[in-house]
């Protein structure tokens, strides 16, 4: 196995020096098979079928299953006529085939689109490309399994309808009206997805008119890798959904939007109607300093010292749209200091007991969910239930239900007083109930 890997590495090294930019001809395939054993010949470049099956006219690189990998037109569109990039791309394609033949986690050629090859071209190292291919492999398998389950569910439902004794369409109107149940006479109206979608969008329209402002700063796309931008875009989609499902949503403004950035393009894939005029989403290319008064802005950053003790309904909170898996520099803190904006952080250490080895970072949608609960209840014990349990110790408990109070001061919560709080005795409760009945 070691000799095989060594020969493959030498083969790739020699290929990068001597390979021509054109697709190999039949003669080149013959020379390759004379020089290297059959286990090194793969794809339509150096396969055992290359002599009998010549390269097609459109110069499409294919694998052994004759599945289209990437066409010459896509290569020219990606490289834009740059010969060095075209040479590097073909080497990366060959490298991917080596990993596939070696049994590594590489997605099928049907999943490898031109956009993925363009992303592969931007990765500087081979280890980075290997990790990216492994990520794509797991993602493709998840999508495939989801599609299989969907088809099985559809098939089961069709069999259920076929085996059903009575069909609503086959019954006369009199019998149909007398029979009560699903698909028959029913007092409950079936709501379509479009109806519910319009209902939730109406909440956002009301929030735009009367709701509290919340700013999502999308100006960190250049400080993140492509995978971090993808995670950020997904979290932005989740927080948008959580916000419009809430009874009293925020009026969210996405600022510092760059339409040419990877973050905006990925976010646009999750929400295709985000730039439509009739869609209730506020996306701005301007900064929050140009849209809102500076004295009301409060930047939420975990790197500052001042804690957020209570929720201010007049403030405009800012949440940075950043995932810092690679670059963990305090970018939001530096930005808030540079712009002289008030900074605050969640009181996580005061209310939570963190487990050993767990990070204290929260996702963007979790931060917005905490703010939604704080706006409604003003109780940190209830709002911090969105923190993942895996990050906390087993002794940490949350309040699963909230009882509203007209006084949110610390004195109104008996559990926060000094000493041990004890409930009222059952004897006094019985006396009160008895006196009520006696009257």
Automatic annotation (TrEMBL):
Domain of life (superkingdom): Eukaryota
UniProt key word S-adenosyl-L-methionine: yes
Residue intervals of the SAM-dependent MTase TRM10-type domain: 200-394
Composition skew (Polar residues), residue ranges: 398-412
GO cellular component terms given for this protein: mitochondrion; nucleoplasm
A GO biological process held by the record: mitochondrial tRNA 5'-end processing
Region (Disordered): 398-424
PANTHER family xrefs: TRNA (GUANINE-9-) METHYLTRANSFERASE (PTHR13563), TRNA METHYLTRANSFERASE 10 HOMOLOG C (PTHR13563:SF5)
Designated name of the protein: RNA (guanine-9-)-methyltransferase domain-containing protein 1
Organism in which the protein naturally occurs: Ceutorhynchus assimilis (cabbage seed weevil)
Lineage: Eukaryota, Metazoa, Ecdysozoa, Arthropoda, Hexapoda
